[in-house]
């Protein structure tokens, strides 16, 4: 899934692919120790986080 998200390209519209990649590569997600509140309780997944900010690819 990680590879598919990294290689997927959509041009002309905003997507949440960077956010999804951050989720599936997060250590807590990878070791199955997350709950239904995972996104709410993991501030580094916030769209405002610099780790998720990337320029659009055109």
Distance between the termini: 23 Å
Please report the number of helical segments.
Answer: 3
Unreliable runs: none
- Strand content of the residues, in percent? under 5%
Order of helices and strands: HHH
* Main sheet characteristics: none
Count of individual domains: 1
Query: What proportion of the residues is helical, as a percent range?
Result: 25-40%
Number of strands: 0
Form type: flat
The average pLDDT value, as a whole number, equals 81
The secondary-structure class comes to mainly alpha
Q: What integer value in Å does the Rg equal?
A: 12 Å
Would you kindly provide a written description of the structure presented here, covering whatever features stand out?
There is one protein chain. With 58 residues, this protein is mostly helical. The chain has three helices and no strands.
Name the descriptors:
58 residues, mainly alpha, 3 helices, 0% strand, flat
Compile the SSE list and pairings:
Elements: H1 2-7, H2 17-24, H3 27-30
Task: Summarize this entry quickly.
31% of the residues lie in helices and 0% in strands. By secondary structure, it is mostly helical.
């Amino acid at each position: 899934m990680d590879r598919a998200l990294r290689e997927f390209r959509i041009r002309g519209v905003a997507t949440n692919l960077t956010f999804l990649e951050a989720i599936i590569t997060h250590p807590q997600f990878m070791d199955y120790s997350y709950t239904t509140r995972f996104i709410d309780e993991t501030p580094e997944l916030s769209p405002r986080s610099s780790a998720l900010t990337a320029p659009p690819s055109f």
